[in-house]
TrEMBL record:
Pfam families: Glyco_tran_10_N, Glyco_transf_10. GO terms for molecular function: fucosyltransferase activity. InterPro entries: Glyco_tran_10_C, Glyco_tran_10_N, Glyco_trans_10, GT10-like_C_sf. Belongs to the glycosyltransferase 10 family. SUPFAM superfamilies: UDP-Glycosyltransferase/glycogen phosphorylase. Keywords: Glycoprotein, Glycosyltransferase, Golgi apparatus, Membrane, Signal-anchor, Transferase, Transmembrane, Transmembrane helix. One of its GO terms (cellular component) is Golgi cisterna membrane. This is Fucosyltransferase. Signal peptide: none annotated. It comes from Mytilus galloprovincialis (Mediterranean mussel). Its EC number is 2.4.1.-. It is a single-pass type II membrane protein. It is an enzyme of class 2 (transferase). It is found in: Golgi apparatus membrane; Golgi apparatus, Golgi stack membrane.
Length: 434
């Protein structure tokens, strides 16, 4: 795929001529917003792109607006606001929207943002600038004789005394990760770390565990929290970099992302969880089969940061063959996906969620909340199970869980034995509207 995607344009209007500012040896990119409420990217982008073929100066000084070749915006509800856009805009200036969250977690509507942005930058292949969470490329021929300097030999399977581990912090999700982990753990040993597991991470990093602990595992359950188009995150790439076989939960919309050949095992390539467990056991006991999942390391190298993809963004600013364009329907572009936003299901509230003594649980006759996410630092967290659609209400009842002493979650013991646990939780009930 080239630097710029021009192949998927139902929500974009393209113009025959694009105006350019004066030729520069150093294009200027203005960061108009913060990145998740910090200016981390003001320092990260220059650090990750210092070896790019083209160079761009990164600034967050809004006084530089008139000299900027591009204005970059990060979309979150706390970073980007319509009333905070520049009041003037140069015809030669590219306004680019950076979004690396799947639409399932974007509650705000993009409709008001029609005809605002020229380019999109995201993990989706049909963005203007494709920015995956990781990437791989062939090792140059001249470096192949010393390939172990790039990819050190992996720790042999026979010396690894642990089967698999998982790290999950978002406990209720569209992909039902807990259900998969719970079912698989009935057949093989799985160490479950994070907010949703019974084990605590030893370090604050995506890997969760230090190298001397990681090398003991054969597999990581690197499950994504949603099955959105092209959504393959750092969980996968970080696992590859650590010399562990990732077990993924990719559905059709995620399978076309470029990844090293024969580098992973997919849950959905098996008829059931038991068959998957049997295969994982087979791989763990067969050294040749285990090593086959690392043959890619003889020919390819990987990059585990999406920040270095800003090289493509910078280089594209110099490319005069890129036409002028504007996203006329940003909401349509975002929602054109195989996954949907979390929303309420029109089901009646079952007796299991009604008030019961002696815990004095209560329901207030108000409308249900529009989202059911509880994440730190708010001190509320969903149970480490995929929530069934049992805490919903249908009009005209409009029940809402009141923020009193409520059941912590509608916990499920397979197959359908739902139970309540007498802990405190906020207004949370999440399902996916089919």
């Amino acid at each position: 795929m080239g630097l710029i995607s021009n192949t998927y344009q139902p929500y974009v209007k393209t113009f025959p001529d694009r105006q350019f500012g004066p030729d520069k040896t150093n294009k200027v990119i203005l960061l108009w917003t913060k990145y998740f409420e910090t200016y981390e990217w003001l320092h990260t982008i220059p650090s990750e792109t210092k070896h790019c073929p083209k160079q761009c100066m990164i600034t967050n000084n809004r006084e530089d607006l008139s000299q900027s070749d591009a204005v970059l915006y990060h979309f979150t509800d706390k970073d980007l606001f319509l009333n905070d856009l520049p009041t003037k805009r140069l015809l030669s200036q590219v306004w680019a929207l950076f979004i690396n969250e799947p639409n399932i977690f974007v509650q705000e509507s993009f409709t008001p943002w029609a005809n605002v942005f020229n380019w999109t930058i995201s993990y989706r292949r049909h963005s203007t600038v494709f920015m995956p969470y990781g990437m791989y490329e062939p090792i140059p021929n001249e470096l192949l004789p010393n390939v172990t300097r790039i990819n050190p030999p992996i720790y042999p399977a026979q010396y690894r005394d642990k089967m698999a581990y998982a790290v999950v912090s978002r406990c209720a999700d569209d992909a039902e990760r807990y259900r998969l982990i719970n079912e698989l753990s009935q057949h093989i040993n799985v160490d479950y770390y994070g907010e949703c597991g019974n084990l605590k991470c030893e370090i604050k990093h995506n890997s969760c565990l230090p190298p001397n602990t990681l090398r003991r595992y054969r597999f990581r359950l690197a499950f994504e929290d949603s099955n959105c188009r092209d959504y393959v995150t750092e969980k996968f790439w970080d696992t590859l970099s650590k010399g562990i076989i990732p077990v993924v939960n990719w559905k059709a919309a995620q399978r076309d992302i470029p990844v090293p050949p024969n580098s992973y095992i997919n849950v959905y390539d098996f008829p059931n969880i038991k068959s998957l467990a049997e295969y994982l056991t087979k791989v763990s006991r067969n050294s040749t089969l285990f090593q086959s999942y690392f043959k890619w390391r003889d020919h390819f190298q990987i990059y585990t940061s999406f920040w270095n993809s800003f090289c493509k963004f910078c280089t594209a600013l110099y490319d005069k063959s890129v036409p002028a364009k504007v996203y006329t329907d940003l909401e349509g572009w975002l929602r054109d996906d195989y996954c949907q936003r979390f929303t309420l299901s029109p089901l009646s509230l079952p007796p299991v969620c009604m008030a019961t003594p002696p815990h004095d649980y209560q329901l207030s006759p108000l409308s249900l909340p529009s989202v059911c996410m509880a994440t730190p630092p708010h001190d509320y967290q969903l149970s480490p199970l995929s929530l069934p659609p049992v805490c919903m209400a249908t009009p005209p009842h409009g029940y809402q869980l009141s923020p009193l002493s409520l059941p912590s979650v509608c916990m499920a013991t397979p197959p359908h034995d739902y139970q309540l646990s007498p802990l405190s939780l906020p207004s949370v009930c999440m399902v996916l509207l089919a």
